[in-house]
Amino acid sequence: MKTICLYFQVHQPFRLRTYRFFEIGNNHYYYDDYANESILQRIANNSYLPVNEIIYDLIKKSKDKFKITFSISGIALDQFNLYAPEVLKSFQKLAKTGNVEFLAETYSHSISSLIDKEEFVEQVKLHAKTVEKYFGFKPKVFRNTELIYSDDIGETIAEMGFKAILTEGAKHVLGWKSPNYLYYNTLNPKLKILLRNYKFSDDIAFRFSDRAWDEWPLTADKFVSWFNNINPKEEIINLFMDYETFGEHQKKESGISEFLKAFPSAVFDKSDFTFSTPSEVADILQPVAAINVPYPISWADEERDVTAWLGNDLQDEAFHKLYELKNLVKKTNNKDILKDWAYLQTSDHFYYMCNKFFSDGDVHSYFNPYQSPYDAFINYMNVLNDFAIRVKKLLSKEETQFVKLQNQLTRKDKQLTKYKNELTKLKSKIDTVNKKPVKKEVPISKAPAKPLAKTSTKTVKSKTQKKQAKTKTK
Q: What is the end-to-end Cα distance of the chain in Å, rounded?
């Protein structure tokens, strides 16, 4: 079987308004309603609505052979309800075709998987319930925020009952291996892993309208011809990208809509490939090997790690200050507090604080409402300080003190666990070294001399006597 898995991320954050220092403790509304509504309406008109219609027509024309996959963040679904209910209806229309799979992710499009397993699991469960509520589809496959993945995250997802996960086919993880196969998690082999083919995906997502690109213009026929040139043994091509690629990142004038319309028929007419959803891939294909990912990877930037969100002191401080409030937030059980807690966790807030430049600078500036990472940090921390005041006001001093001590104990437990793990690794290395057979080399100074040829003393004497006798006779 040779198949294509076409997957799109759908997400827009609730952007924060400019929140001044003197407002802390006085004004508790944090969101830029005008920016959020106008941006979502623009993207809906340029991308979501027209492209959903194209995909619906493609499914019908292909007689159900064309299949597609989405993960829509809980934050995006909330915005659809507020600002563009027609977008939600268009996704529901696609869901009814039966040719669309919806994946689970974190409700807040957060990076909680990097710091708090309990919060992470809670958000995934909430998102899965929301997807089932809107689309009548119970997610079987998981896609973490920005394709963030590690062995430990994969193990957690397997424990939750998901059969597959999507992540980046990062070079430093794959080495000589190809992303065009199905793999499995090292800690729990039941979890299948689909790896993004970043070369083919980025040809559409980033290079499509680049006239300096030596392959411009990209046509559907040309693109499919590249698929035919890959190793015949390779089984799957995973094309993962933002949904805004069509009509927003790559404008309609670039010809991106015509490319999408022509793509399925080019695949069916000029290749042996089919289209499959991640669930179908996990059911049909057999994984070829384990993928070892001890440290988190993502699909962001050249490094394919998590430094886009946690790569500098500003991001680290904001991130840890936010999650220090978790236990207090949960104790309030207040609807408004819990809503703000969800929206403040959105990964975009930390992405805006990224101070990377050079090749990745333009990517970080897209949709960014701030002039600099420092402006993003100051604004976020002002909001977070006000949020902390509100949370603490709803609790007694005793409760606040208790949670503070709880947090301290949790931090110490994490440090102890970290040190124990490091000790275990060091001990295993020492044991490995000790188990290796060592060749005993005898020092040169102590090496025994070669034994001399043995000559008996009697023989020497008899030879001497014979010589003496001969001399006397003469």
A: 108
pTM comes to 0.84
Q: Compute how many other C-beta atoms are within 10 angstroms of the C-beta atom of residue 431.
A: 9
How many of the other CB atoms lie within 10 Å of CB of 423? 10
Q: Is 208 exposed, middle or buried (0-12, 13-18, 19+ CB in 10 A)?
A: buried
Tell me how far apart the alpha carbons of residues 365 and 331 are, in angstroms, rounded to a whole number.
37
What size, in residues, is the chain?
474
Q: What angle do CA 290, 294, 299 make, to 5 degrees?
A: 85
- The pLDDT averaged over each successive group of 10 residues in the chain (474 residues) is 96 97 96 97 97 98 96 98 98 97 98 97 98 97 98 98 98 96 98 98 96 97 97 97 96 97 98 98 97 96 93 97 96 96 97 74 66 96 98 76 56 66 73 62 48 46 49 44
Spot the catalytic one: 101, 105, 119, 146: 146
CA distance 351 to 309: 5
Around Cβ 234, how many Cβ atoms within 10 Å?
15
**Residue burial 178-202, b: 16+ Cβ < 10 Å; e: rest:** bbbbbbbbbbeeebbbbbbbbebbe
Q: Reduced to 3 DSSP states, what percent helix, strand and coil does the chain have, rounded to the nearest 5?
A: 55, 10, 35
User: Which structural domains are found in the chain, ordered by start?
Assistant: 3-307 (3.20.110.20), 308-409 (no CATH)
Contacts of 385-388 with CB under 8 Å at 24 or more apart are 385/24, 386/19, 386/23, 386/24, 386/25, 386/27, 386/28, 386/30, 387/30, 387/325, 387/337, 387/340, 387/341, 387/344, 388/325
Q: Helix or strand or coil: residue 379?
A: helix
352 three-class SS:
coil
> What separation in angstroms does the CA of 351 have from each of 206, 287, 327, 346, 375?
19, 34, 24, 9, 12
Cα–Cα nearest to 344, from 22, 19, 30: 30
Residue of 268, 267, 266, 245 whose CA lies nearest to 256: 245
DSSP letter for 245, please. Answer: G
Cβ-based neighbour number of residue 226 at 10 Å: 14
Q: 312, 355 in Cβ contact below 8 A?
A: yes
Q: What are phi and psi of 250, to 5 degrees?
A: -105, 110
Residue 146 annotated in active site: yes
Q: State the Cα–Cα distance between residues 30 and 24, nearest whole angstrom.
A: 11
- CA distances for 20 relative to 33, 55, 419, angstroms: 17, 44, 41
Q: Compute the chain's Rg from CA coordinates.
A: 32
Q: Please tell me the distance from the alpha carbon of residue 170 to that of residue 182, in angstroms, as a whole number.
A: 14
